[in-house]
Amino acid sequence: xxxxxxxxxxxxSATMKKELxxxxxxxxxxxxYVALVEGSMDGESGPSPGSGTFDSWLKEDDKGRVFxxxxxxxxxxxxxxxxxxxxxxxxxxxLERALGTGRKHQxxxxxxxxxxxxxxxxxxxxxxxxxxxxxxxxxxIELRLPGRDKIRIESPAPGEFARALRIVPNARRASSSxxxxxxxxxxxxxxxxxxx
Length: 196
Fold this sequence. Notes:
Blueprint: E1 5-6, H1 14-22, H2 24-27, E2 28-38, E3 51-60, E4 66-69, E5 77-89, E6 92-99, H3 106-113, E7 136-144, E8 150-154, H4 159-165, H5 171-175, H6 182-185
Parallel strand pairs: 1-7
Antiparallel strand pairs: 2-6, 2-7, 3-4, 3-5, 5-6, 7-8
């Protein structure tokens, strides 16, 4: 997404771009984001309190807007995102999101559909814009470049995300050192801290 801050991957040659695009899903082993969303996600269900998985089908219309679709509907693609609550306050929740798939506007649509649009995401129903921007940040990507070793790139979340909560982030953050992706990928804890 153009309005998302954080990590962006660019190819320096047409050949590398072609290789990356051809095998992107196989090359990328981890993609983490943090999002500041409207409402409290504390009561949401998942494998532990304050965590869960969105598993839905998404489809794009002719105007480029993505929406939830039914399984098997023509043009619909499955979208899987794991999430974990990092902190909350001021009517907002700070979430860490691990992508299982990489669909257009996947995080934005799934959160809006759950009743918790991303702060500043007017396109998908946000009523607040406390930061004057889309509150979505790409913090981590781990990928294997064609013919090379795996690399991991990290970008800490903007401090303004945690400051918008106006409280200290959730105590669960301190007690849980792994990302929502760690059990699946064997990834080690993130070095960046979404509290800024």
